[in-house]
Amino acid sequence: MKKLIKQIPLIFCILSIISCKFDTEVSKKTIEGKEIPIDSTIPGDPKIEAFIAPFKEHLNKTLDSTLAYNPHVLSKGEKGMNTGIGNLMADIVMKQATPIFKSRTGNNIDFVLLNYGGIRSELNKGPVTTRDAYNMMPFENQIVIAELSGEKVEALLRYLEKAKSAHPVSGIKIKMNKEYKVTSAMINGKPINPEQNYFVATSDYLQQGGDNMSFFSNPVNLYDTDYKLRNAIIDYFQKIDTIKAKQDDRFIKE
């Protein structure tokens, strides 16, 4: 036993040498890789293409079926603090989500706020299809209603001052001066009451802090409509014949 104890330092030394040798050998090894792009240069498998062909045809027919008619191009590139396409999307949320919210809570939506960057494509003149709705809103965002205090609504206005962008709104009327400071804000035709709560419809992405909209965090209450924004757009297009959307005075810089 005593001999074994005396040999312990020697054992540790041998193990240390082996460990160092192992680490050195490992460090010399390298891993190589290369990027393989998955694009149109890769030929398709004829069997797979034949299998999916009928499904693709059915899907294209569904996406390209006409839902409504748009008399003129709607683009978020219009100058000003509101755009025709932004107004259209915000108004759709108001019109489609209010009946759901009303039936579940007995309350009305006070106003809608979406984000400028959320409009992903323009709406061309002519027949409007389901594919157009997918192009406008390719994400799976759902409509939610956040109950905000008057103080949070004031923070919302401060956000719009800093953003200086045509974020789509409906149900609220905002005026700014040349320095982008809000000079007037009316909800349901009345000035904002700091002692009152407001029901604000938006997307779950924005409510969760997307686009730095932190004022949506920790609302008084949060209501999920289980209704995707894109589905609301499609349902609205199916209900109407001709789209009537344009710039107006809901959000302006004087």
TrEMBL record:
Under the heading Gene3D superfamilies, the entry gives: 5'-Nucleotidase, C-terminal domain
**Domain 5'-Nucleotidase C-terminal, first and last residues per copy:** 81-216
PROSITE patterns listed in its UniProt record: PROKAR_LIPOPROTEIN
Q: Which InterPro entries match?
A: 5'-Nucleotdase_C, 5'-Nucleotdase_C_sf, 5_nucleotidase/apyrase
GO BP terms: namely: nucleotide catabolic process
What are the recorded GO MF terms, alphabetically? Answer: hydrolase activity
Report what the protein is called.
5'-nucleotidase C-terminal domain-containing protein
